[in-house]
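Hi again,

Forgot to attach this to my earlier email, sorry! This is the prediction with adenosine-5'-diphosphate bound. I've pasted everything inline since the attachment limit keeps bouncing my files.
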Amino acid sequence: MKKILIANRGEIAIRIIRACHELHLKTVAIYAKEDEYGVHRFRADEAYLVGAGKKPIDAYLDMDDIIRIAKMTGADAIHPGYGFLSENEEFAQKCEDAGIIFIGPTVRQLQMFGDKVEAKEVAHAAGLETIPGTENPVKSLEEVQNFAHKYGYPIMVKAAMGGGGRGMRVVNSDDELPDAYNRARSEAKQSFGDDELYVEKYLENPKHIEVQILGDKHGNVLHLFERDCSVQRRHQKVIEFAPSIVLSDDRRKEICDAAVRLAKSIHYQNAGTVEFLVTDDAFYFIEVNPRIQVEHTITEMITEIDLVQSQILVAAGKDLFKDLHLPKQEDMEYRGCAIQCRITTEDSENNFMPDTGKIETYRSPGGFGVRLDGGNAYAGAVITPYFDSLLVKVCVQAKTFGEAVDKMDRVLGEFRIRGVKTNIEFMRNVINNPVFRAGAAHTTFIDNTPELFK
Ligand code: ADP
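Structure tokens for the complex follow:
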């Protein structure tokens, strides 16, 4: 492998380019017309306009044009990042057909995990416990009602092809059901082009714990411990930290081993995340994200393993142990605690409406134990309405969770961003809240804590 095309934009494109340069690999960026001044474009060795004439997001989804650019530039591999085409099996197949390595799992594995109902079957077969739910996609409102009467409310209606917290609805009673069902259906159709739904028992106040997995082409699978992503707003992650501070060592091992068992059962390749909802006495598989995740950074900080470089190397056929020299599972260790906040250009005083405009002032924090992964974050940058509103990811690491929280508070306080609204003050409210500081935040913490929004 000598040259990699990065089929993404913003912070994750820059993150991947950095990994490539450290591995002495050449990089090719692609950019939509609206990203003409996108930093990722200038960080790569070469950059090309993609999807000319298409809408901004559609440009990054233009599979044939991306493959054309890869062939034209002689790229050996494509890294899809997260979002966009990262979980698209058709794209992975097209890469394979063109003789280009797709840096991710196999086409079949993408298929398997793209459909959450099938994913649950695979998990079940590997002996993992799943949340009681319908075994097949539901065909009618009546079927959902029957499920609710059998298992009791509350239940959750979810899009089979869903992602990003969309297409899911909590239902508390028969009265709420028709409306929730129809809304989830139309949201699923609109967001994912498929209105297939399934139903699960709704767990009240679980924690979202996910395990980082890395597999190679030789059947080796390692876990790199867990992340706690319970701090969510409307089922979307806001703050993540690693490791969890409430799991006992035994519980941690049980959950991480379960994730490895699932991955090994299908010879999982590349980086992936096995997600669980955890209650006081059980842990339930919910889904696998077969790609690098936004919050991979905190796992890198506590394990000192570069996940993006690892992805590239295993895609090139390298062995986790013989070539990457990773420790055996029983020798794998983590150090301290890392926290990530996703700084967005969203106005937390106005229902998190994305803000746009020119960044007039940009002063970023720094110091010991601080990591920033930014996209177009600098004075003079113009924030457009075309893409997601993630501006910069800020991570800190310290010996303990408490010290990391203090550091994060200091770091957030050092930011000076003027010209566009951000969620920084809101983030400070969250991390200074006693529930968060006690490590007691569950998935509904933000949504049920109105004082955070003041
Ligand atoms: P997505 O793929 O859209 O991210 P997930 O299935 O990963 O959806 O779920 C996202 C979040 O939604 C979870 O972290 C959790 O907060 C909530 N959630 C999902 N399923 C359930 C459930 N059965 N009970 C309670 N909360 C749930």
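The mean pLDDT is 96. Residues 131, 156, 162-165, 200, 202-203, 206, 208, 232, 235, 275, 277, 286-287, 443 surround adenosine-5'-diphosphate (CB under 6 Å).

That should be everything now.

G.
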